[in-house]
UniProtKB/TrEMBL annotation:
CDD domains per the UniProt record, alphabetical: M23_peptidase (cd12797)
Segments crossing the lipid bilayer: 28-52
Gene3D superfamilies reported for this sequence: Glucose Permease (Domain IIA)
Organism listed in the record: Plantactinospora mayteni
Polar residues: bias regions: 211-226
Domain M23ase beta-sheet core, chain residue ranges per copy: 95-193
InterPro entries on file: Cell_wall_metabolism_enzyme, Dup_hybrid_motif, M23ase_b-sheet_dom
Pfam families: Peptidase_M23
Residues covered by region (Disordered): 202-226
Name listed for the protein in its UniProt record: M23ase beta-sheet core domain-containing protein
Keyword terms, alphabetized: Membrane, Signal, Transmembrane, Transmembrane helix
């Protein structure tokens, strides 16, 4: 026979365990946490869909300079693939208008790196870093253009809608620039690609050797797309 102490130890009272009810604040916090988690999952799903979506058709980009002007497009070893430098074949480079290649919305308008001290009054001043004053435009369909080394703060602001041929800045030599010129890029799906102007390839695809070609701008205010 078991001793009384053992029998008593095996007997339960039959009463359910009582838990302290959660406070209202705790319940609200749990609900908020669930909502935040759901929103985060939805945001990730939306971003994934946008990244996986193929780019739209290539817009008919125009040269980012005034209609009828002839400019030299070039690259050089170490410049990076697909990057285009533009210099006018006639007249002064400083202060020339920089135009939007195609309609879109400004996503960046500010300073890339540091400005340095090269100006029309002191063209041999100290170089800066990066692109200096610059602008980036989203044209939709995962197409972007970038405009670097502008003379002064851009003439547009982030979020602004611009039309093809609208002036967004002036040619300068801010950032890591040896002389006044416009550094220009076209991007598809956020990756640099060969720049096309008026539907024709620029021929600048790599920076293995120095390469230049003269092209005349047809950025005359008439916008088309493929």
């Amino acid at each position: 026979m078991l001793p009384p102490s053992a029998i008593l130890g095996a007997v339960t009272t039959g009463q359910p365990t009582r838990h302290r009810p959660r406070s209202r604040a705790t319940r609200i916090l749990l609900i908020l946490a669930a909502v935040v988690s759901a929103v985060a999952v939805l945001a990730v799903a939306v971003v994934a869909v946008l990244l996986l979506r193929p780019p739209g058709p290539r817009p008919i980009f125009q040269m980012p300079v005034a209609c009828g002007e002839t400019w030299q497009l070039g690259t050089y070893p170490g410049h990076d693939d697909f990057d285009v430098d533009l210099f006018p074949t006639e007249g002064e480079s400083w202060g020339r208008p920089v135009l939007a290649s195609y309609a879109g919305r400004v996503t960046v308008a500010g300073i890339n790196g540091s400005l340095g001290g090269r100006t029309p009054e002191d063209p041999d001043g100290p170089r800066g870093r990066g692109g200096g004053y610059w602008v980036k435009i989203d044209h939709g369909g995962k197409w972007e253009t970038q405009y670097l080394h502008l003379l002064e703060p851009p003439l547009v602001r982030v979020g602004q809608r611009v039309e093809q041929g609208e002036q967004i800045g002036r040619v300068g030599s801010t950032g890591n620039s040896g002389a006044p010129h416009l550094h220009y890029e076209q991007r598809q799906g956020w990756q640099k690609v060969e720049a096309y102007f008026d539907g024709e390839p620029s021929g600048i695809t790599h920076d293995d050797t120095e390469y230049t070609v003269n092209r005349t701008s047809n950025n005359c205010g008439t916008e088309t797309s493929r």
